[in-house]
Design brief:
MetI-like fold
């Protein structure tokens, strides 16, 4: 018990700094999700409907991103791109890396959701005079959204945790803030414990929001 008290005191003392950094962590995750969704949708549509060369390129992109560690991708973008004349600051490099990584996984989620819509829905839409584009927009995508929502929510929760990796390029997000506190106090357990609890709290809150959205969409689908 005597050793636990200093740890809890250290965790409590580090909370103001860590909570301030949490805003950047959430901002990173939301930015990557907002930017990654349209990119992921584009990649999914290319893999489903584009000519063969574009399908192949989209598949290669997804395979490369999913087959390499996010940490390596962050290093390639932040440290590698300057050799090609593209210099990004840590925030830009971190957001770009998270966006590209998220888009590959989101594209697979979206592609599977689109393919889950029965083909009869397309045929019925065509019989009513809808074009392929209108069918995709008004018939297929709304149904695919309900299927994809749980995985999309899980992706956002995963992004919140993946933001910890951008600390390696000196972005002062939640984990990096904990490390800076530890460098001043020389007490590691408390700040790391506080950071872990904040990650847990944010993830739990997102899970609640996801559950409400799923129930709302399920209710609309049953009416």
């Amino acid at each position: 018990m005597d050793t636990l008290v200093p740890i809890l005191q250290s965790a409590w003392a580090s909370l103001p700094v860590l909570l301030a950094a949490t805003r950047l962590t959430i901002g990173f995750a939301l930015a990557a999700m907002v930017l990654g969704l349209p990119l992921g949708l584009t990649v999914a549509l290319l893999r489903l409907y584009a000519p063969a060369p574009l399908r192949w390129l989209a598949g290669l992109y997804v395979s490369f991103i999913r087959g390499t560690p996010l940490l390596v991708q962050i290093f390639m973008i932040y440290y590698g791109l300057p050799s090609l004349g593209v210099v990004l600051n840590p925030v830009q490099g971190g957001v770009l890396a998270l966006t590209l990584n998220a888009s590959a996984y989101l594209s697979e989620t979206i592609r599977a959701a689109i393919q889950s819509v029965p083909r009869g829905q397309n045929e019925a839409a065509y019989s009513l005079g809808l074009t392929p584009g209108q069918t995709l927009r008004y018939v297929v995508l709304p149904q695919a959204t309900r299927v994809a929502l749980p995985s999309l929510g899980n992706s956002l929760i995963g992004l919140v945790k993946d933001t910890s990796l951008v600390s390696v390029i000196t972005v002062v997000e939640l984990l990096r803030s904990a490390q800076l506190v530890i460098a001043r106090t020389f007490e590691p357990f408390g700040p790391y414990l506080a950071a872990a609890l904040i990650y847990w709290a944010v993830s739990s809150l997102l899970e609640l929001v996801q559950g409400r959205l799923e129930r709302r969409l399920a209710g609309r689908g049953s009416t």
